[in-house]
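The data layer described in this paper is built around a simple, fixed record for each protein. We quote a single record here, exactly as it is kept in our systems:
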Amino acid sequence: VQLQASGGGLVQAGGSLRLSCAASGFRFDDYTIGWFRQAPGKEREGVSCISRNDGKIYYADSVKERFTISSDNAKKLVFLQMNSLKPEDTAVYYCAADLIIDERLCEGGSTEEWDRPDYWGQGTQVTVSS
């Protein structure tokens, strides 16, 4: 299983970025793919997940109405479109996959509290300047 996250960068507050997660080595349609983030000194937390099996989508309250998760099935890509970025969105963003990811994790829960997905990509840094 391989997950490759990309698309991070430096952006001013109010700006946008689109993260991409390229998946390989597993049956894409059977898995839930999630985006997580970890800011310095903080626990890793769920941002958004998309269940490829039933199409359900979950968001943390802190990103609702600003972030959108989507997927390209043919290319086995999952995207996180991030709009209206805030300095508090600054973090290393990770994509992860598992057959099931607890929705409470997907909705902003901490990986210290809920079961972590089995498969992780490397992180991509997102920095939002004020």
Remarks:
- The chain has a mean pLDDT of 96.
